Amino acid sequence: MMTPAGADRPAAPRPRVRPDLDGLPLFRGRAAEGGMIGLDCNESPFAPPVAVSDAISAAAGELNRYPDNAAIDLTARLAERYGVSPANLTLGAGSVGLCVQLIQIACAAGDEVIIPWRSFEVYPAIARTAGAVVRRVPLTPEHTLDLPAMAAAISDRTRLVFVCSPNNPTGSAVSRAEVERFLGVVPSDVLVVLDEAYAEFTTGDADPLDGFGLVRDRLRQGRTNAVALRTFSKAYGLAGLRVGYCLSAVPVAELLGRVAVPYAVATLAQRAAVAALDCEEEVRGRCRHLVGERERVRTALLDAGWDVPVSGANFLWLPIGSAAESFAAHCRERRILVKAFPGEGVRVTVGADAENDALLAAAGQFAQVGAVDVVRSAPLG
Ligand SMILES: Cc1ncc(COP(=O)(O)O)c(C=O)c1O
């Protein structure tokens, strides 16, 4: 590999960059590794539906042109799908792009962002990048968002609160009634972001959050401080194209547009997402299958003595504490990638049936090599 330019020269004064970014965690994400079973990124194991691949191929001849910056077709389709005006919708480069924009419009240096913890690992980094102060509110012992504690953590400096449901990495979902109670006590000038990246996998819940429905109902009542995020990355299997969407009040959508990176949602992403909406039945069937697999894997692990919280997402959380890294290494030796959170646990994506079988076999072998006691006695969370 080539040495980075200048690495062999004496140190010259560094450009003046922000000292408060020292120590900012680096998001590593997926590094493609051939021949591995990737259960570490909560992706769909299904290739996009044929109609989606066809739409991508058809758009390839137009790539000399910039994308439609307003994404008129996709926005109109989503507006129709959710019964809202296009003016209430913003598209982004993945829902993570929208998380960044939401922080940009709400927070100046020193303002506070409240997040549940542990939750989506990107939240603290993007908040700190904006100069905001991150307040982490621990999950309950059942690995669920502690909404009353999050409400109690709000101060005069709080500008934004992330509510991640189902929560990454624990899979726990909060109900609509719980979120309504929470919103009832949050000051109306604090932006609440309902991050529903995995909403399509919560089928069967008695009182599912459906943040899009909740935000729409609130907007009709003139209540504007809650927004909801969804993505084409998970249920729709388009993680490689980067397209997410946000439902908000019109002034919030307008501000999101102002801070957007120009042309952030590529033409291929827009066309693929429109085609994916045409295949919603197929997508729903795939989600049902993954939910079935999730329950099969969870039951098998529970039967084998593992602690596995209920999940409403396309992944399971194994709160194995100090055994997290050794279990991930054990899986890697068997060519399976899982996501370890050192000292806390391991997140395992629900993959294709055979991949899930491989994971169960690896978990069984881990128990046989004497680690099952570690698994059973590990501290929660
Ligand atoms: C909770 C949560 N929100 C948002 C995202 C971002 O998804 P994307 O940017 O692919 O839409 C993820 C991705 O893993 C996630 O887990």
Automatic annotation (TrEMBL):
An annotated Gene Ontology molecular function: transaminase activity
Pfam families per the UniProt record, alphabetical: Aminotran_1_2
Aminotransferase class I/classII large domain boundaries: 36-361
Stored SUPFAM superfamilies: PLP-dependent transferases (SSF53383)
Region of interest (Disordered), residue spans: 1-22
Comp. bias (Low complexity): 1-10
Keyword Transferase: yes
Record's keyword terms, sorted: Aminotransferase, Pyridoxal phosphate, Transferase
Cofactors (names): pyridoxal 5'-phosphate
UniProt keyword Transferase present: yes
Family membership: Belongs to the class-II pyridoxal-phosphate-dependent aminotransferase family.
The protein, known as: Aminotransferase
Lineage, broadest ranks: Bacteria, Bacillati, Actinomycetota, Actinomycetes, Kitasatosporales
Encoding gene per record: rufI
